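[step 3/7] inverse_fold.run input=structure_tokens len=172
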């Protein structure tokens, strides 16, 4: 840590690799969704990068790192539960009752999904299918399509926005 604070690039790289391993170990004992672990690990690495100047060389590095891990994890939990509460409050008992194993409804849902996806460009459709139908993480989609993770997330967000707009337009 001291060498990386002084600008040694090799030490800085070694620091980030070590922090990533520690962060993944810390998070994997607390989270089960690999994409969340990946995202949170990246946030931790960014925080370490942005806060490395605050490290006090007279103190041990591990408590400083674990404090960052803990704060990032608490931020994740706050966001996760706030969003989960928001999403579950939107569901009414009537809507929940429609999620059955009825083959006719299943067929109708599949047709509706295909119709909504038909509004998109091929790249947008592929990204949404990989993320939300196949359950891949943004990192996996990024590697498979050879585009950046931020590009995957941005395209997914814009695609969903487009689908919502088209769906609302047809309902009017």
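[step 3/7] decode complete -> sequence:
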């Amino acid at each position: 840590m001291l060498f990386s604070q002084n600008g040694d690039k090799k030490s800085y790289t070694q620091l980030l690799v070590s922090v990533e391993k520690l962060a993944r170990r810390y998070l994997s004992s607390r989270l089960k969704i690999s994409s969340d672990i990946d995202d949170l690990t990246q946030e931790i690495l960014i925080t370490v990068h942005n806060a490395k100047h605050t490290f006090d060389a007279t103190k041990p590095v591990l408590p400083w790192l674990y404090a960052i891990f803990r704060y990032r994890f608490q931020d994740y939990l706050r966001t996760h539960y706030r969003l989960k509460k928001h999403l579950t409050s939107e569901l009414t008992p009537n809507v929940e009752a429609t999620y059955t194993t009825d083959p006719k409804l299943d067929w109708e849902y599949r047709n509706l999904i295909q119709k909504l996806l038909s509004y998109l460009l091929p790249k947008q459709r592929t990204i949404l299918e990989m993320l939300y139908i196949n359950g891949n993480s943004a990192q996996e989609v990024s590697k498979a399509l050879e585009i950046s993770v931020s590009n995957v997330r941005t395209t997914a967000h814009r695609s969903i926005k487009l689908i919502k707009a088209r769906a609302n337009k047809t309902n009017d």
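[step 4/7] annotate
The radius of gyration is 21 Å.
DSSP finds nine helices and no strands in the chain.
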